[in-house]
Specification:
The chain is an all-alpha fold and 179 residues long. The chain is built from seven helices and no strands. 88% of the residues lie in helices and 0% in strands. The radius of gyration is 23 Å and the shape is extended.
């Protein structure tokens, strides 16, 4: 996660022509990132209010904003958890992808010395890998929508506390200062 934040800034610093480019890029990045995350959560909650509660778009957005304000920490925790799961899934899929693709190319190339068969094997392996990648993303998207729907329904049923809040609650002095 830290690499996902720092890496773009390092690339900008390495290839920037003006000295203030990194400064302004960092400011924009650290303002844009939370804004995009909040807007994404608001959009999800709004869509869920429209779909599950059959409300109008304006009323659903107002309800979504209220739900987010009351449960912002749980929403951010869920977003971070899904981001980590996506990162792990991508890592696993790409490791499997390269292992299978290399094994497939080696298998096809060992069968013949004809370059045409090697290219056909490489292309076939690439198509199979892309199909597997698309299936993994479809499954992850379905899983992610299920998580957000469950979070949405739980937050609407009863008040919940975030994991951070529950962990801090065990430290009474810190809990009094923060909450």
């Amino acid at each position: 996660f830290l690499g996902a934040i720092i890496m773009p800034l390092l690339l900008i610093a390495a290839f920037a022509a003006a000295p203030w480019t990194l400064f302004w890029s960092a400011i924009i990045f650290f303002i844009a990132l939370p804004t995009v995350i909040i807007l994404d959560i608001l959009a999800r909650f709004t869509i869920m209010f429209v779909m599950l509660s059959k409300g109008s778009l304006n009323k659903s957005f107002n309800k979504a904003w209220k739900l987010f304000r009351e449960n912002w920490l749980i929403s951010i925790e869920t977003s971070l958890l899904i981001f980590v799961l996506l990162f792990v899934l991508l890592l696993i899929v790409f490791i499997i992808y390269f292992l299978l693709l290399n094994a497939f190319i080696l298998f096809v190339s060992s069968m013949t010395s004809n370059p045409l068969f090697f290219q056909i094997g490489a292309f076939t392996g690439l198509v199979i890998a892309i199909i597997i990648l698309v299936i993994c993303f479809i499954l992850f998207t379905t899983f992610q929508l299920g998580i957000w729907t469950e979070v949405f329904q739980r937050l609407n049923r009863e008040p919940h506390f975030s994991k951070v809040h529950r962990a801090v609650r065990r430290l009474p002095l810190l809990h009094k200062k923060l909450f």
